Amino acid sequence: MPTAHWPLPGLTARTARLELRLPTEPELHELADLAAAGVVAPGTRPLGSTWAYGTPAERARAVLQAHWRAQGRWSPEDWNLPLAVFVDGRPAGIQSVRATAFALRREVLSGSWLALPHHGRGLGTEARAAMLHLAFAGLGATDATSHCYADNAPSVAVSRRLGYRPDGVERELRQGEATTTLRFRLTREQWDATERPEVRLTGLDACAELFGL
């Protein structure tokens, strides 16, 4: 529950189909169970994070530790908010937003994953749209960025659908082989001009200081 000392659990972003917020401890363990069951299609490696390709137990532990680590290391100068994606009241995945020196740079970076049963339903686009509303309308960001492998077609499609523009490429190693990573950037002006779902924010005022505002 949110408290005066730690109000982040009271921060929510809601659309017609889903809700973003920090999970309770039981809900976090439900997310860990979803991760254990799988977050990527067999034989594919669309995510840069290696945890998604571990054993079921390793995937579950990675989700738990990432959540606890993000809150334990939080500072207004360097924060990571791993919001759970709730569909019909149940956890479906994670939509994160992070920033360094946000008060000065006003730039955020996003990341996400959804459990396999929730793929292909447009939820990834809607979850990122809700996160962008939090970043731009709520926190006053000027830029949002996203990175993905060039062959991660769903992530590329989400970025393009939401108005991001190409922002360069990088060469990285994936399982010992060179691969291309695409960078995308969305400015405040581009976000203003893009059609998007209606989003309702609650609990943000109490959290402003934690974001360096």
From TrEMBL:
<dbReference type="InterPro" id="IPR000182">
    <property type="entry name" value="GNAT_dom"/>
</dbReference>
<feature type="domain" description="N-acetyltransferase">
    <location>
        <begin position="18"/>
        <end position="189"/>
    </location>
</feature>
<dbReference type="GO" id="GO:0008999">
    <property type="term" value="F:protein-N-terminal-alanine acetyltransferase activity"/>
</dbReference>
<dbReference type="InterPro" id="IPR016181">
    <property type="entry name" value="Acyl_CoA_acyltransferase"/>
</dbReference>
<dbReference type="GO" id="GO:0005737">
    <property type="term" value="C:cytoplasm"/>
</dbReference>
<protein>
    <submittedName>
        <fullName>RimJ/RimL family protein N-acetyltransferase</fullName>
    </submittedName>
</protein>
<dbReference type="InterPro" id="IPR051908">
    <property type="entry name" value="Ribosomal_N-acetyltransferase"/>
</dbReference>
<dbReference type="GO" id="GO:1990189">
    <property type="term" value="F:protein N-terminal-serine acetyltransferase activity"/>
</dbReference>
<dbReference type="Pfam" id="PF13302">
    <property type="entry name" value="Acetyltransf_3"/>
</dbReference>
